[in-house]
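Morning. Coffee machine broken again, so started the prediction first thing and wrote up yesterday's gels while waiting. Chain of 105 residues, entered below exactly as on the submission form.
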Amino acid sequence: MSHDSPLPLRLRQARERKGLSQRRLGLNAGLDELSASPRINHYERGRHAPDYSTLSRLAWVLEVPVAFFYAGEDELADWLLLWQEVPQPVRQQTLAELRAHRDEE
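Came back before lunch.
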């Protein structure tokens, strides 16, 4: 795994935000009881990267979008967390306004 990947940092941030231990996160995501804590530790240290299926389960447990793990900038990471909390009609309106603004330029 690349050392400049934001995944280890974002995973730790999301886990701490939920107040979960590495072991509890792993167990809640369906990892084997004996390897749950070591696997999450390896992911957070950047030694290994979870496959997409595992990352999706981690995202579900942590209540973050999968894209959050790949956000290279803190501002984008914050945006992704906020975006998932916005009701669908507001999302649609916001996207329409952003597209209109882009098209004006």
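The first helix runs from residue 7 to 18. Going to sketch it on the whiteboard this afternoon.
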